Amino acid sequence: MPATYMQRVDGKQGTGRQGIHVFLNDDQFALLQTIMTWKKVKAGNILFMEGEEAGQLYYIRSGRIKLRKSTEDGKELILTIQRKGDVIGDFGGFGSEDYNSTAETADACEVGVIQVKELEGLIAKHGDLGLQFVKWYNLKQRIMESRFRDLLLYGKAGALASTLIRACNTCGTQDEDGITLSMKLNHTELGEMIGATRESVNRMLNSFKEQGILDTKEGKIVVRNLEDLRFLCGCPEQGHCPNEICRL
Fold this sequence. Notes:
This protein is of the alpha+beta class.
C-alpha cells in the first residue's frame, strides 16, 4: 500500500506514527492504556459539549470525531476532524477546566476513555509521561493557531486551499493521479471548516477543477497541483512547516 503523503518528507519515508503515538513510546502508551475504559459509540453521538467540565480525555482507536465550536451568532465551525491515534479533550493540569469545543462522532467509533483525575495520578508517578503530554498539548495549540491564521489572513479561497493541504498531510495517498484524500469531505463539512456556505465551497472547488488544481475520483478529492494550493494560502515551501502542525 502506498505511504500516506504525510509520511513522505523530502522524499524520505517517515515513521508512520500518528496522533499521540508521535510523543509516546510503546511502554508509555501501554502505561496510558492501564487507565483507559473502552467504549463503542455510534455515528452522530456527542461525547462532550462545549462549556461542560472537562473530566475525561478520549483516545480514538477507530473512526472519526469532529470537534465543533459555536460562534456568538449561532453558527458552528469545525475546528478539526480527529482520527485513529488522536486524543481529544482539554487537559490543562491545573485543576478543573471546561471543554472549549463539542465532540461529535462522524462515524461509528471505538474510544478509550481516560479520567483526568487518574491521568493526573499517573503523571505524578511518571514524570516522563507528563513531559510528553505537555509536548502533545503544545502541538494541539500550535495546530489551532496555524489554522486560525490561515482562516483570517487569506480569505475563503485561501482557507479552503489550506484545508486541502492539511487534508493531504493527514489522509492523502500519493499515486499516479496526484494526492488522493482517503477521507471523504463533503461540501458542507468543508464549509463548516472555513466558515463558508456549501454553495461557496462548491463554486471554489469548481474553480479549482477548471484551473487543473484538483479533481474527484469515486467521490474522493484528488489534488493534482499542490504548489497552486500553496500559493493561494501563502504556504511556505515544503519543509518550513512541520507536517505534524500542517494537518486537520
